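The freezer alarm interrupted the setup, so I double-checked each line after restarting. Inputs confirmed:
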Amino acid sequence: MILSEKSATFRDHALFLPQRGRRALAGCVLLAAAFLPGAAALAETAGQPQQQQVANFLLDNGMEVVVIPDHRAPIVTHMVWYKIGSADEPPGQSGIAHFFEHLMFKGTSKHKAGEFGAKIAEIGGSENAFTSYDYTAYFQQVSPEALETMMSFEADRMRNLILTDKVISPERDVILEERRSRVEGDPDGLLSEEIQATLFQNHPYRIPVIGWMHEMEKLNRADAVAFYDRYYAPNNAVLIVAGDVEPEAVRMLAEKTFGEVPPGPDLPPRVRPTEPEQNTARTVTLTDSRVSVPSVSRFWVTPSYNNAEPGEAEALDLLSEILGGGTRSRLYQALVVKDRIASGAGAYFSGTMLDSSSFTVYGAPHGAEGLDRVEAAIDVEIARIVSSGVTDAELENAKDRFVRSMIFARDNQSNMANIYGQTLATGGTVEDVQEWPDRIMAVTADQVQAVAAKYLNPDVSVTGYLLPEPTARN
Amino acid sequence: MILSEKSATFRDHALFLPQRGRRALAGCVLLAAAFLPGAAALAETAGQPQQQQVANFLLDNGMEVVVIPDHRAPIVTHMVWYKIGSADEPPGQSGIAHFFEHLMFKGTSKHKAGEFGAKIAEIGGSENAFTSYDYTAYFQQVSPEALETMMSFEADRMRNLILTDKVISPERDVILEERRSRVEGDPDGLLSEEIQATLFQNHPYRIPVIGWMHEMEKLNRADAVAFYDRYYAPNNAVLIVAGDVEPEAVRMLAEKTFGEVPPGPDLPPRVRPTEPEQNTARTVTLTDSRVSVPSVSRFWVTPSYNNAEPGEAEALDLLSEILGGGTRSRLYQALVVKDRIASGAGAYFSGTMLDSSSFTVYGAPHGAEGLDRVEAAIDVEIARIVSSGVTDAELENAKDRFVRSMIFARDNQSNMANIYGQTLATGGTVEDVQEWPDRIMAVTADQVQAVAAKYLNPDVSVTGYLLPEPTARN
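Predicted 3D structure, all chains:
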């Protein structure tokens, strides 16, 4: 679900917005699959027979540690995941989780602002950070000798940030500008926000990760300090180290650095308001002169890996792959290849969430083709799966495509670290990651049909239309 | 906005749901007008020249008191308004304000459950209670001699309720059943909820007053006790007494009864998350076999009397009257009388809210007429006002209709008490009620056109469709 966006902004402690429109039309099988839990373990199974030797332990102050040895190259990926995302924000303070991600790059009582980044640049490493609904994460990729330095800097900013108005104010201008450019400046971004606000009627996933402009404008020092004191603590964090290191060495370094940080307050369980039963078909239409090609997308609330009935999230993953995962999918073959009415069409499932998730289909017309025809053709393909199911061959192919894309993903060490981090920050365990391939392999064609019938109900859905001016309203 | 629903449920400490569909199609000029602030004072101006002598003072414990003498008959209306409504509920505890309204009819340390009601019945009085987004109110109408007894009972249950599990559990079953009957059992109710959840993307007005079923099911004793301790206190309440009494007598009785209740904690200002800028046209469609006649309604977020620019709320009130208030309105004349395509059509503005409000237009087709034609005809009427404004004659007629309906409203003592209570519970003052007629009279035709142009933008709106099965989707 993440890491797929423009690398330029990603390098600069980026925000992961649900950029549905953009992602949707890009066709990102590989990246979508790369962030599914268990991708790594499955790749391991396929690539080499032994199970990956992952270490998982707690420091005395409650910080969880995962070490994923990977000795192919002298590189190490160091990530700290905080179990705090936009869906945990106090009402009326939307955007503070992402704002805080920015503030983490400011000075501490030990290090001036910019010192950490300068050190990474000096040794030829890279760094980044991102915020989502359920977590905020920071990472660096460096040579193994520099790991202790990274851990030491990261442990320092977990507790010692200096949060003065002089720091807060200009950085607030930065996030406001970021919102102007990513949302107000982008019809896709505007539409995505209002689709999400319509799709979730009660759960805070309806609120944008970057925040509502009018609430961001009011974020202040007191809010930031309260947020830091509450959520930035070792007992609310997961350390992931992947790379050319041994677990015992990581444990020693972690105890020496993060282990010195006192635990924060015990936090209550992350219980957010949940969705009511939904009963209506909704649409959200944005007509904007900046749009050149219209598009349609349809969303359904579904369970996530963390709250689904056994097998349902896996079946939804395979359904998204068969229905709309890349050029061999039903939607692409029918709309783009066979009927030539669409320039793109697909589906995706964002299953790695703490609470409810969503399933999406999308399409954009080819040439002057009507958007209504594209939408109708998508409906036909969904109805076909609901009524007749998928074939065993399709299912095996989909599983195979997952495996192959994961082998590819496995090559990227930071992807590995991400998979574990994202899973652990959304209620999962190391075992969930490792057992996931078996659970995917066990999904039957009947299960895929069953989740399609259960969740892809057109009478309870949200459909987004992005329309150019002056095209007639759809 | 309230008191217009089925009197049967009203008698039984009712909940005021935004039953838009039902109200919409009933055409309730009189009742809508009756609850606008200042209705009483205007009626007074029109009926008899002197300003109404309303007394307004505070008790030592912070309880506000309003006394509205009305000596036409030996009746008194006694109301206590708590400044707590569903929009103040903690996230995830939707429905607790209304649940608490029910619990207020249980036993206290002084009186057994039912004793209060039995006393009222014995003396031939009536009583009721209701919950809305911004307030919860309790009232009795009795003969003046019984006022002290009413105040004494009411003061008692402000502090002395016995909230045991034995009390809580069965009453929770009652509210769940109430929801089943009013929402799940009523397509109008279901659609209204999801329209509201779509219209408000951030403000808690998007959450139903009665609560989401899955959250109501979890309301428990601890929630109820915390809610009672926080919000049920004299410094969070307004006492309204209208009728055959003198202010000084009421003051003495109030000091003797409510005056003995210690103040609760100081409450922070009622600041709820506010709406972001909205950018999209949204629709919400419910297709239900229980629907016999389809209908369409369109909603816009607008300011309320409490947060509008000067004159805008008054102009929105007059706009609703000219556009869709009753049988002489533009919508009714065009769609029902002239074109005969609609069986009903109208508009209303719900201006008495603490935060944002909404403006609504609606229509239902006549016979086999298409809903799309009704919707298009409504759009034409709105566009006409936006482009050409309203005539001075129309405006004067609308003001006149307001006046006349208010004279009628003035005859109902409990309406008077309601107008003051509702205004004071949503940020207004006694002066606001009294000055309102002058502000309405000062509205110009240009102002009416201006608010139509500013707020009734079809590209930023929510349209609801209620469709019978198997009518084709609109």
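Quick read of the result. The two ends of chain B are 29 Å apart (CA to CA).
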